[in-house]
Write a structure and sequence with these properties.
Elements lengths: L7 E4 L15 H4 L12 H4 L4 H8 L5 E4 L6 H11 L3 E6 L5 H16 L4 E6 L6 H5 L2 H5 L3 E7 L3 H4 L2 H5 L2 E4 L5 H15 L7 H11 L3 H12 L9 H7 L12 H15 L3 H13 L4 H16 L5 H16 L5 H13 L5 H16 L14 H5 L40 H17 L5
Parallel strand pairs: 1-3, 2-5, 2-6, 3-4, 4-5
Length: 445
């Protein structure tokens, strides 16, 4: 018998069939919203005139990709959207589903379509499907057999095929704010018909422990309701009883690149406090300190540059100190290097100059140096004019001959333009000095 619209199938995920009555209904599931108006958070998508609200009002739902951290309502929103638009809801997980499950889902969707019923296929962790599996959705999306709603915690720009991305709208879901988490906690208190057994300060600590994850908060709240306590708990007692939610950090995922970018830009922006914060975030998330040593050495070269030549040495010494001390003691050396880099004068003049020089080198091919600066170890080479006319700079009264060192036929270029900061302020004076000498000595410019 064909399923009716708005029915729910779950395929490829661990089930709880036959366990009804044996396992208590989790608080997070009991409080799952049934309408868009009940959803807490994501106002940028659900408010009047916003994307999801507009889609529901129009009764037309395109294929979507929900991108956001865990516990912000990706599955819940998909279920509600299916109900609001009259679609049969089918959920699978890319972690557990294979080719067989996909074929079954597609076959059933085609059958329901022939009977006038649409299907929303919700794919959790969609980024875990390979290219061929992602491509298998395309024909059914194009002919309207399924409305695909994928959920991912990873950047879809990197993890999903371009063909799939072109057929789906990406909606970014945000972590819940403390105010939104508090509203969720009050909803749980109303459901339990009692208040959480803790002080206001402890309540704030509880909300912070959830780290923007609504499901994590409800799990913590459920633990708190299970306690038999005679008086309200303070923050210290709460921290003894509960373990904070693990920090969201994936050393090979989006968070890795986002946080190192934040650290780098904080250093470039001369903000030592922000730099220390992002450094601490990465270390607490399990990042390899050696990776941070390498990246901070790069910052010293790219962003501090010759405005403070000692910055490289500071980073290399911090790197060596970490190798000798290890964690956690050696991490202080990294913190000191981050502070030094943030407060150092900044210059990318050498970085830019080398980039321009490389571009010119690529454009000019295999041009030879001018003959007067070529050595002539053989008679033939002397006869060809090698080293003829070369002036030994140390023999000049200024220690500077002003000769041309670019290939013949190439107009002289100035790549390095030092900034008026730090050590480069002195370098700028030297560049100007040699420029004047070169003009006075009549060198080709």
């Amino acid at each position: 018998m064909n399923a009716q619209p708005n029915t729910t199938d779950t395929i490829g995920t661990p089930g709880e069939a036959g366990q009804a009555g044996k396992v208590p209904h989790p608080l997070a599931d009991r409080l799952r919203p049934g309408r868009l108006s009940e959803v807490i958070g994501q106002t940028h998508l659900l408010g009047p005139g916003r994307p999801l609200a507009t889609m529901v009002e129009a009764g037309s739902l395109p294929s979507l990709v929900f991108w956001g951290p865990p516990g912000v309502g990706k599955t819940t929103l998909a279920r509600i959207l299916a109900t609001e638009t009259g679609l049969r809801f089918v959920q699978i997980s890319a972690v557990f589903s294979g080719v067989g499950e996909l074929r079954k889902v597609f076959s059933e969707a085609r059958e329901h379509r022939s009977n006038g019923s649409g299907t929303m296929l919700f794919v959790d962790e969609i980024h875990r499907f390979n290219k061929a599996q992602q491509d298998s959705f395309l024909p059914l999306m194009e002919d309207g057999t399924i409305t695909l709603v994928g959920a991912t915690t990873e950047n879809p720009s990197f993890e999903l095929n371009a063909a799939l991305m072109s057929r789906a709208q990406v909606l970014v879901l945000e972590r819940l704010s403390l105010e939104e988490l508090d509203r969720l906690a009050r909803r749980a208190e109303k459901d339990a018909a009692r208040d959480l057994p803790m002080t206001d300060e402890a309540r704030s600590s509880l909300l912070a422990m959830a780290d923007g994850d609504g499901r994590a908060l409800l799990n913590l709240v459920e633990q708190c309701f299970s306690w038999a306590v005679e008086k309200k708990l303070d923050s210290a007692e709460l921290s003894h009883r509960l373990v904070a939610r693990a920090v969201q950090y994936d050393k090979s995922g989006d968070a890795h690149y986002n946080l190192i970018s934040a650290l780098h830009k904080s250093v470039r922006g001369s903000d030592p406090d922000a730099a220390l914060y992002w450094l601490a975030r990465m270390l607490s998330g399990g990042e390899d300190p050696r990776y941070l040593c390498r990246r901070m050495t790069r910052m010293a070269i790219e962003d501090v540059g010759l405005a403070d030549p000692d910055a490289q040495a500071v980073c290399l010494r911090a790197w060596e100190s970490y190798e000798r001390l290890g964690s956690p003691e050696g991490e202080l050396a990294l913190a000191q290097a981050a502070i030094y880099l943030a407060l150092a004068p900044k210059s990318n003049a050498a970085y830019r100059a080398f980039g321009e020089a490389r571009a010119m080198a690529a454009a000019t091919g295999s041009l030879s140096p001018p003959k007067h600066i070529l050595n002539a170890p053989t008679g033939l080479m002397k006869a060809m004019g090698y080293s003829r006319g070369y002036e030994y700079d140390h023999d000049d009264s200024d220690g500077f001959s002003g000769q041309n060192y670019f290939p013949d036929g190439i107009e002289r270029r100035q790549f390095y333009v030092p900034v008026e900061r730090g050590t480069e302020r002195e370098f700028a004076k030297r560049v100007a000095y040699f420029f004047k000498l070169r003009q006075r000595k009549g060198s080709r410019s």
